[in-house]
Amino acid sequence: MREASFSAGRIELTLEQRLLGFFRESEDGVLSGERIGAVLNISRTAVWKHVKRLRDKGYRIDAVPARGYRLVAAPDALTVDELAPGLSTLRIGCRIVSVPETGSTNQLAFQLADEGAADGTAVIAETQTGGRGRLGRRWESPPAVNLYCSVIIRPPIPPMHASQLTFLSAVAVSRAIEKSTGLGPRIKWPNDVLVNDRKIAGLLNEMNAETDTIHFVVLGIGVNINMERGQFPEGLRQPATSLLLESGKTVDRREFTRVLLSELDNLYDDYLRNGFAGIRDEWLARSMLDGKRVRVSFGEGETTGEVAGIDNDGALLIKGSSGNIERVLAGDVTML
Ligand code: BT5
Question: What is the CATH T-level fold of the domain 80-286, as seen in this structure?
Answer without folding.
Answer: BirA Bifunctional Protein; domain 2 (3.30.930)
